[in-house]
Amino acid sequence: MGVEVRVEGLTKSFGRANIWSDVTLTLPPGEISVLLGPSGTGKSVFLKTLIGLLKPDRGSIFIHETDLVRCSESRLYELRKLFGVLFQDGALFGSMTVYDNIAFPLREHTKLSEAAIRDIVMEKMHLVGLEGSEHKLPGEISGGMRKRAGLARAMVLEPEIILFDEPDSGLDPVRTAYLNQLIIDLNAQTDATFLIVTHDINSAQTVPDNIGMLYRRHLAMFGPREVLLTSDDPVVSQFLNGRRQGPIGMSEEKDSAQAEREMAEIPGELEGVPPLKPQLVPSPGLPERKAVARRQARVDAIMHTLPKAAQDAIRASREATAQAERRAGRTPVAAYPSGYADGPTERLNPVDGGEPPQPGRHRI
Amino acid sequence: MSAPTIVTRALTPVGKFFLLALEIARMTVKGPFQWREYIEQTWFVTKVSALPTALFTIPFGATIALLLAELTRQFGAQSQTGAGSVLAIVQQAAPIVTALLISGAGGSAVCADLGARTIREEIAAMEVLGISPIQRLVVPRVLAMATTAVVLNGLATVVGVAGGYYFNVVVQGGTPGAYIASFSAIAQVSDILVSELKAVLFGLAAGVVAAYRGLNPPPGAKGVGDAVNQAVVISFVLVFLINLVITALYLQIVPPKGS
């Protein structure tokens, strides 16, 4: 199971420019969390702070009860081995082949024989659908392939936390959809804690268990995906609708005159957040995500604190997930409408419908 | 949080630079040493700077020879041209040519390489994988530059002296015997030793500057270009300063031959 990452009161500035302050959140173990935010709000900076590449001004990051910000250099290197990071362009070493890139962490950190390394590398390459590209150089493969190779390298040491820096940047919507499915599948197979930094709305709607949003140098929100996706906050609905009308401007803030002018361009009321999309489930043939049951228990415990709209959305998406699970040929152990404090008293009948999904691996 | 003052902002990079230099020294001692990378980098830096050094030294040696021949003729001491030319080349010209080429050709190549790796996030990826990029990439490059500097200095000395001889004897019609005799009358072994010592220091300094700028480029692809530019300018200034200090010390400490 993945580890919990607890961030408390994190503040970061570059010189005089404050990037964000007082960010407090907990990444629940094994769950997928997404950090959303307009460009330039310091999402990537947050990711780099989380792995200790940048030092925050204040605050703490706890992993296994060790504060990453204040621990010794050697402990930091030790803790970093728990992390796998997918950088924006894959960050492959340009002078090495794809195979050597993926084998690199194993050769550096383990005493495995070349044969054993070969087995692991081939398994990871199969996992991300890169068979046949092992002898190519990073410059000779496409951006999507570089990302997947970077993902294979990030996973080769079996990390407990995997961070994704804009996995969808530079990919077309179809490739993004495949990559999103791959992320869900990997989560089901590894049960590691995932954090995805993105500004792709579709990914944010369909992939995560939890969503946070950075805006105006603060963490505006962090919680179960349904909370943000049903929020009536004008910033959230502007962002999710991808429109100009709302508080977010071209540079971070805009003046009220401009806001009024833009509002006048559209007749009537602004629409709220888009309808909730169902969360992706693992491909057929894979196990259920263990995080789903844990998340359910966790969300049930805080259910009464959530807004009414979010509560309804959580129930609805549980039902949708259960149906999707059945379509994928699994029995959803965890999915039952909440409100039954003692667990499910009755199981809903399986819903038939939709084409049976094709077995087999997906490729980008 | 108080805003950093001008002094703090000006001194922070200097502090970071020395910190990097310390870290490089620590990692060199600590190991494990990356022999393969070191040999490859030495070959690479030598490849980009050897030919320019030779080409640079010939006109440089010739200029000194011409100037000295003219000067000594006015003093009526043509027979001493060899001595002057050799001293100038061994002690000053060769190390300075080395300094220019090691910073200009070698340092810029190293800085561009590290800078490109930094913006492609290769360096960050390496750190996240728990591998020190200093130990893995920077130490071999800095030591490769020091090694190459020594080799280049030797090359520049030979080419410079040969060039000086050619211009003095063949072009200006000087006496070969007088040239050689005055040369061995004044030159001493410590001249070439201190010249090589300078070369090592130039190589190290230019290497650390290239690494520092390469690892901390301004953002974007243009940033790497700017970083390379700055690395070359900073290392020029730095190596000339080192040259001044060592020359002054050498002249104070080691007595000239025959005095």
Automatic annotation (TrEMBL), chain A:
Domain of life of the organism encoding this protein: Bacteria
Identification of the protein by name: Phospholipid/cholesterol/gamma-HCH transport system ATP-binding protein
Domain ABC transporter: from-to ranges: 5-241
PANTHER family for this protein: INTERMEMBRANE PHOSPHOLIPID TRANSPORT SYSTEM ATP-BINDING PROTEIN MLAF, PROTEIN TRIGALACTOSYLDIACYLGLYCEROL 3, CHLOROPLASTIC
GO molecular function list: ATP binding; ATP hydrolysis activity
Record bears the keyword Nucleotide-binding: yes
Organism of derivation: Pseudonocardia thermophila
Region ranges (Disordered): 310-364
Origin organism lineage: Bacteria, Bacillati, Actinomycetota, Actinomycetes, Pseudonocardiales
SMART domains hit by this protein: AAA
Keywords: ATP-binding, Nucleotide-binding, Transport
From TrEMBL, chain B:
Top-level taxonomic group: Bacteria
A GO CC term attached to the entry: ATP-binding cassette (ABC) transporter complex
GO molecular function, one term: phospholipid transporter activity
Sequence intervals crossing the membrane: 50-69, 142-163, 199-215, 227-251
UniProt entry keywords in alphabetical sequence: Membrane, Transmembrane, Transmembrane helix
Protein name as it appears in the record: Phospholipid/cholesterol/gamma-HCH transport system permease protein
